[in-house]
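Researcher: Sequence of MSMEG_0569 family flavin-dependent oxidoreductase follows. Predict its structure.
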Amino acid sequence: MTAVLPERVEVAIVGAGQAGLAASWHLVQRGVDHVVLERATAFHDWQDRRWDAFTLVTPNFQCRLPGFAYDGDDTQGFMTRAEVGAWLGRYRASFDPPLLEGVEVVGLTRAEDGFLLRTSAGELRAAQVVIATGGYHRPVVPPLGLRLPDGVVQVHSADYRNAGSLPEGAVLVVGSGQSGAQIAEDLHLAGRRVHLALGRAPRSARRYRGRDCIAWLEEMGVYDVTVQQHASGLAKRESTNHYMTGRAGGHDIDLRAFALEGMRLYGRLTDASDGVLRFAPTLAQYLDHADSVMESIKNDIDAHIARAGIQAPVEARYSPVWVPEEEPAALDLAAEGVTSVVWATGFRPDYRWVEVGVFDGTGHPTHRAGETDVPGLFFLGLPWLSTWGSGRFAGVARDAAHVAERLAARAGAPVPA
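Model: Prediction complete. Tokens:
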């Protein structure tokens, strides 16, 4: 059935992931006229851009959206991809948002009465707009991918599903952030020969001194630190997440241990020619950096425990289980039987459809806690939108409350009793 757009609404929300739905929940409660536009189906990214064995890295107790917390029986566990989709489905059903699926917004411009949205279902005018499409739009593949042999299958992490979806043979994974490290583990557990080119991603222990590290950090208020308060400032919005996993109940990802088990580790990928890839001598440096970040997090947890007088078990610190004896400089794909490459090299934002001047020189929106300098235009669902916690469900809920309050105030909606 073709979606029928209203001629005008007070608020148009673009995107029906967790951020768009969270904003809609607040507007429903405040009685603000709005519509949620989704080019595919609600929260489709959870199915389309996650591999089969994907689990959340954040524990289930952190899965809180406005009016709807985690409702399962494993608060300390980690929902799988399917479980997250089912949970979000129950969230949607709990308040029945004014959602139009299959409606793609192809253009957004300013108009005398607010904004004009050009969509696949026609035009829509809105006094205010929330762009809740996330920040991970276009998969990034380095240009040197064009120099790999034609017979080597290349997929981005967004399109990886499982080991069986790749041709037989060894696999090179490029990138060691959360996705790269977890996909390398997925392939390794499936018995594939894995080569992993590391980036400078940090890591964290899954648990320390009797609790999940994320539980400690939440208690310490780390996720409440704003981007303005952070030493790196706005540059923090480009940082790589710490790698760990929620798979099989949650555990550390120790690339050194994988190396002991036969995974081949390399430094930063720098070049490719005639089927031979070359790497910078950064392997030991990157491994040491990841471990140092993990240990610094433990230092912070120790200090918190001491300040608060908390009784917690003492735990021995990490000792490297493997140290590279040499830095591998090259990888001959044919000689090593590498038949496929998984690029876990991130995404770029793509806001070409937003024809409003609210972007910096790198294509990222400029805003403060989601509010831009253009009256009535907001962003939601971006990492570090306001705090470190903005990338987590609970952080999305807090950001959505703030943005919705601004929307309702501009709309003249009554303040709830």
